[in-house]
Amino acid sequence: MIIQKAGGRTMPTEEKKRETFKMIAKTMFGLEEILADELRQCGATEVEPITRAVAFEGDMRVLYRANYTCRTALAILKPFAEFEANDDQELYDNVYKIKWEKIIDVDGTFMIDSTTSGEYFTHSYYAALKTKDAIVDRLRRNFGHRPNIDTENADFKINLHIADNKVTLLLNSSGDSLHKRGYRQGVGVAPINEVLAAGMIKLSGWKCDTNFYDPMCGSGTLLIEAAMMANHIPAQYYRHENFAFKRWRDFNIAEWKSVKEQEDKKIGSIDFDCEIWGNDIDIDVLQQAEANLRYAKLHKDVMLYHGSFEEQEPPEGKTIVVTNPPYGERIKVEDLNELYTKLGDTFKNLYGERCEVWLITSDFEAMKHIGLHPSKKIQLYNGSLDCRLLKFELYSGRYKVQ
Question: Is beta strand 355-361 parallel, antiparallel or unpaired with respect to 319-323?
Answer without folding.
Answer: parallel
